[in-house]
């Protein structure tokens, strides 16, 4: 979900001397993170950072294959129902395909409109330059008619000459073509396909371009991957999950040998659900450099984990629904309400506004009907164990009620289905244990675990001394309305005016730290507390911050760093630093 920031302010200025955290590579701070985790194509600290590789491209191509196979088999099955006169099944199957797709395409097009709409009075992302008072230029992202230079290798900022009428006409024509193309793509329900292809294009551009443009394209690729992973997660659990239960119920109801097309549709929906969950977790971890990246081995094992647990869950649903349709509906609604309430009381912090947070929690409640989905910072072992114990009891009860309605003495087929539910769930738990015991990014579950933050390997504890500010923060709350309105926060007087959006601030005074100090380069300061993992950072879900960061990063000859503010003290402290 994307939203505007709650009065967030972002500013760029020269890096404060003594700011904690040194330079970490040149693209998103992932170089050191991936190197620590044994990721491919990276170098150590101060190296060239992560690179887009062949396996990343293959992962996107596999995601496209899963997307097309899921949609094609569902439409083919709907056409088959229509040709055979089964109009009820035709309407249900087509409804589960079109309605979620329309919702996702509208959301995707809304994101495109916001990303491609320029500020009033400016031909592009506008910035202006001022003297920061600390011996270097600073960058303000206020909406101004002064645009920055985007030519590679231009070290200074300055006003751009007014475009001629011919160039302005060509620009308008190009923008019109882009708008028409995006409208046509989304009308064809192919918005996600466009985003997949664009993410792959940006990744390849980051591999072929020079150093400055390489880090810029890599950062844009991460943004595009985050968008498409969120869209796919929403669509699969609104489309593939109910489609899977419906088609499995028809398979059980018909009995005998299953129809090949029906089996293909259920298999494609199942693979789509498992793939989307694993892909979402991988992109989320890759986007946060306070967490170690998820390897492709771990992602594949996650696919198998979710594949078998969701298969067992869906088959138990289908067995019960084939006999007790009304009670099945009551059970699903009750389970969704309980799971949604459980998520809400956990006080998640995924979105930038309250109403979007509620919608997100309702979607997570749908996900919890089928599988585990971590939404809270900290060790999830106890919560996950409790969830799977509840799922095991529910699967056993649903399958037991269905089996009690069968003929025990002659119906050997029913006993096979019960064994399939049990064995599939056991296999899913087995792959889950393999992931946590062998392939988790933080290390084996039963052995010594690596620290959550990314820092150079050394005998010293990870992070600065105890009297210094830790990086990143672990328990920062959401920015509340009282904080935005000037109420007392961390010792500040009530009525203190909130700084305007995109304010330029002077550099911070020197602070003693235990790590290598980096003093050069601009700093992008974001007046929001950093969200806690497993939430997305604000600059990934707030599209205004995203546009500003991309504009400043592209115009700066030196990689800027990001800083999130702390709401617990009266003085602005460094809470998060990385290279864009």
Structure description:
The chain is mainly α and 580 residues long. The chain contains 15 helices and 5 strands. It has helices spanning 30-36, 54-83, 87-116, 165-187, 191-208, 211-254, 260-287, 296-321, 325-345, 354-370, 381-404, 412-439, 481-484, 538-541, 543-555; strands spanning 10-14, 128-131, 137-140, 522-526, 561-564. Strands 1-4-5 form a 3-stranded mixed sheet, covered by helices on one side. β2 and β3 (137-140) form a beta hairpin. The longest helix is centred in the middle third of the chain and has 44 residues, at 211-254. It is globular and about 80 Å long. The two termini are 22 Å apart. Residues 1-9, 11-47, 120-159, 453-519 and 569-580 have low confidence and may be disordered. Belongs to the XK family. InterPro entries: XK-rel, XK-related_scramblase. The chain crosses the membrane at residues 58-83, 89-109, 259-278, 298-319, 326-346, 358-375, 384-403, 415-438. It is found in: Cell membrane; Membrane. One of its GO terms (cellular component) is plasma membrane.
């Amino acid at each position: 979900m994307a939203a505007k920031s709650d009065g967030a302010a972002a500013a760029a200025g020269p890096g404060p001397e003594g700011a904690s955290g040194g330079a970490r590579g040149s693209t998103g701070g992932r170089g050191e993170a991936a190197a620590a985790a044994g990721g491919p194509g990276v170098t150590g600290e101060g190296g060239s950072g992560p690179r887009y590789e062949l396996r990343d491209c293959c992962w996107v191509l596999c995601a496209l294959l899963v997307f097309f196979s899921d949609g094609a088999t569902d439409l083919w099955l709907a056409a088959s129902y229509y040709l055979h006169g089964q109009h009820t099944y035709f309407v249900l199957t087509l409804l589960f395909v079109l309605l979620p797709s329309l919702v996702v395409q509208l959301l995707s097009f809304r994101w495109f409109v916001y990303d491609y709409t320029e500020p009033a009075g400016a031909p592009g992302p506008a910035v202006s330059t001022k003297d920061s008072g600390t011996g270097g230029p600073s960058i303000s992202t206020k909406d101004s008619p002064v645009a920055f230079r985007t030519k590679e290798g231009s070290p200074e900022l300055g006003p751009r000459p007014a475009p001629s009428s011919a160039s302005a006409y060509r620009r308008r024509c190009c923008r019109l073509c882009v708008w028409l193309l995006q409208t046509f793509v989304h009308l064809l329900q192919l918005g996600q396909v466009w985003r997949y292809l664009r993410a792959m294009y940006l990744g390849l551009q980051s591999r072929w371009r020079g150093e400055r443009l390489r880090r810029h394209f890599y950062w844009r690729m991460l943004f595009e991957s985050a968008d498409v992973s969120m869209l796919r997660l929403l669509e699969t659990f609104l489309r593939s999950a109910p489609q899977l239960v419906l088609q499995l119920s028809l398979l059980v109801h018909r009995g005998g040998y299953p129809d090949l097309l029906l089996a293909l549709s259920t298999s494609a929906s199942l693979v789509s659900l498992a793939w989307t969950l694993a892909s979402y977790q991988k992109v989320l971890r890759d986007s946060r450099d306070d967490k170690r990246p998820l390897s492709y081995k771990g992602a594949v094992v996650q696919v198998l984990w979710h594949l078998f647990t969701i298969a067992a869950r869906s088959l138990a649903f289908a067995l019960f629904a084939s006999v007790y349709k009304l009670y099945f509906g009551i059970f699903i609604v009750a389970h969704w309400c309980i799971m949604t309430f459980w998520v809400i009381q956990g006080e998640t912090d995924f979105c930038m506004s309250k109403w979007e947070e509620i919608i997100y929690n309702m979607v997570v409640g749908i996900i919890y009907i089928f599988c585990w989905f971590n939404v809270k910072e900290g060790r999830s072992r106890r919560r996950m164990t409790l969830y799977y114990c509840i799922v095991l009891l529910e699967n056993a009860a649903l399958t037991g009620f269905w089996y009690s309605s069968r003929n025990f003495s002659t119906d050997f087929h029913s006993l096979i289905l019960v064994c399939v539910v049990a064995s599939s769930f056991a296999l899913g738990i087995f792959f889950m244990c393999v992931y946590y015991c062998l392939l988790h990014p933080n290390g084996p579950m039963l052995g010594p675990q690596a620290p959550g933050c990314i820092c150079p390997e050394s005998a010293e504890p990870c992070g600065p001394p105890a009297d210094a500010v830790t990086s990143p923060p672990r328990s920062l709350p959401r920015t509340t309305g009282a904080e935005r309105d000037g109420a007392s926060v961390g010792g500040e007087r009530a009525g203190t005016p909130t700084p305007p959006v995109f304010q330029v601030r002077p550099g911070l005074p020197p602070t003693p730290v235990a790590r290598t100090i980096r003093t050069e380069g601009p700093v992008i300061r974001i007046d929001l507390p950093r969200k806690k993992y497993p939430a997305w950072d604000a600059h990934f879900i707030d599209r205004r911050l995203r546009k500003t960061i991309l504009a400043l990063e592209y115009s700066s000859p030196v990689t800027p760093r990001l800083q999130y503010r702390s709401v617990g003290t009266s003085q602005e402290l460094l809470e998060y630093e990385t290279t864009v």
